[in-house]
Amino acid sequence: MELFVVLVTCLSFLIFLFLWNQRHAKGKLPPGPTPFPVVGNIFQINTKNVSKSISKLAEDYGPVFTLYFGMKPTVVLHGYEAVRQVLIDQSEEFSARGSLPAADNINQGLGIVFSNGEKWKQTRRFSLMVLRNMGMGKRTIEHRIQEEALCLVEALKKTNGSPCDPTFLLSYAPCNVICSIVFRNRFEYSDENFLTLAKYFDENAKIVSTPWIELYNAFPSLLHYLPGSHNTLFKNMTEQRKFILEKIKEHQESLDLNNPQDFIDYFLIKMEKEKHNKQSEFTMDNLITTIWDVLTAGIETTSLTLRYGLLLLLKHPEVTAKVQEEINHVVGRNRSPSMEDRSRMPYTDAVIHEIQRFIDLVPNNLPHAAAQDIKFREYLIPKGTVILTSLTSVLHDDNEFSNPGQFDPGHFLDESGNFKKTDHFMAFSAGKRVCVGEGLARMELFLLLVSILQHFTLKSVVDPKHIDTAPSFKGLISIPPFCEMCFIPV
Fold it and tell me: Is 179 part of any known ligand binding site?
């Protein structure tokens, strides 16, 4: 038995050396902590909070260093200058998407988020065009959000000011906004299919932020066949895809080629136009995955930000009071807020930006990859090398923000109380892979949050001083801790 262990260890070490030499023969990667055979640097990283481990390693190795997650090298960028150089200055060279096995297992390189090359370019370009046609960034989508905000307000009133967990209520509004774009219609908050869909998105967000998924992404071949939460993730994603396929079939039966009504119609018409093109990227599988991408990005990020935002406002009642004072002065109580109001509400705008900065929703961004062999600073990074950009290091840069660890709307206000922009605000990433729905998300966050604070006083069930704002999970996404609150009608 001991001989077997020694042989396996030696073989593993030889495989590791082979891969190490192969990689370094093709390029000169930045230095980093010495990896262990097979497992790489996994024992030097806190899988419960990877971004914190990266910040500590950056103190020793500087803004550019290499980590091994298993046997795969990952070049890590820490700090505004390094992150900006990759995402903006050399965005084309680093525009490829790095592998994320937990997602790749289902998406198979399709859709917008995890695709590459011509497939990514065509699908992203087409999706942006359709979203704009459907009103993203225009008054038409603003009206939809305003209507949905009123539905959310009515649902919150039904809690009768009693303590409640607003997790799902806060996801219904952004879910319905994106569903109206993709499926043509919104759902009632009591609709069973709608509730199930929202449950899957919430559960998926929690699962992908756990240490287990960090390990799965590092060792997919080893862990794939073992019991674990990745199986629940795959099951949920499969069920979501079934729901999407059913909706597509309904659209196929009623499709008017000359009068598209929603995202699915536009894509189906594109498929029809290219049906004789064997190289077309517009296929049924790509449609299903693209819709899943749009729904996931359009629902969970906004709802999580709203949840975390209300938690922070509970923790800081003095901030909430100032926002409500501005709402009363600019909007009043007899009409819905509009995007025209935002320019006259600098404090509220600053609070929303500070919520996004402070919560650090996607700490290390989604992985990028070198689209070609790249000369980067004094290093040569081979094509395909995974690139990790620490958005935490940008959003919590103490050279830009006076108290990065504190929730302070003053970070986005000048001395006169006017809203102050900063290039460090990369909550939606930046460059070629910036979030497709950034404009929609900004509009939703402003209109939904202002509508809630216009109609309710927030009340905590515990002393605000005892509210813990640390995330319950901080993996791929920062998940806010559980918190009950009361919505008292004003």
Answer: no
216 half-sphere exposure, CB direction, 13 A CA radius? 25
What is the distance between the alpha carbons of residues 438 and 381, in angstroms, rounded to a whole number? 30
pLDDT for 257: 92
Nearest to 314 by CA among 488, 463, 159, 165: 463
Domains belonging to the chain, first-starting first, are 31-489 (1.10.630.10)
How far is residue 454's CA from residue 466's CA, in Å, rounded to a whole number? 26
Residue 377 — left, alpha, or beta (φ > 0 → left; ψ -120 to 50 → alpha)? left
pLDDT digits (tens, 9 = 90+) for 170-203: 999 999 999 999 998 899 999 999 999 899 999 9
pLDDT at residue 137, as a whole number: 64
**Two tokens, residue 394:** 């940008």
Q: Measured between alpha carbons, how far is residue 405 from residues 220, 236, 261 in Å?
A: 34, 35, 46
- Provide the 10 A C-beta neighbour count for residue 162: 11
Q: Rounded CA gap, 111 and 103, in Å?
A: 11
At 247 the pLDDT is 95
CA 223, 226, 228, 233 torsion-angle sign? positive
- Amino acid found at 485: M
List the beta bridge partners of residue 369: 96, 386
Which amino acid does the sequence have at 467?
I
For residue 191, which phi and psi values (nearest 5 degrees)? -65, 125
Higher pLDDT, 281 or 10: 281
Q: What is the dihedral of CA 84, 87, 92, 93, to 10 degrees?
A: 80
The pTM of the full predicted model, rounded to 2 decimals, is 0.92
Query: CB count, 10 Å around CB of 461?
Result: 13
The upper half-sphere exposure of residue 103, i.e. CA atoms within 13 Å in the direction of its Cβ, equals 24
Q: Using CA atoms, how far apart are residues 427 and 311, in angstroms rounded to an integer? A: 18
Determine the 3-state secondary structure of 46 from DSSP: coil
Read off the pLDDT of each residue in 389-415 and give the average, rounded to a whole number: 96
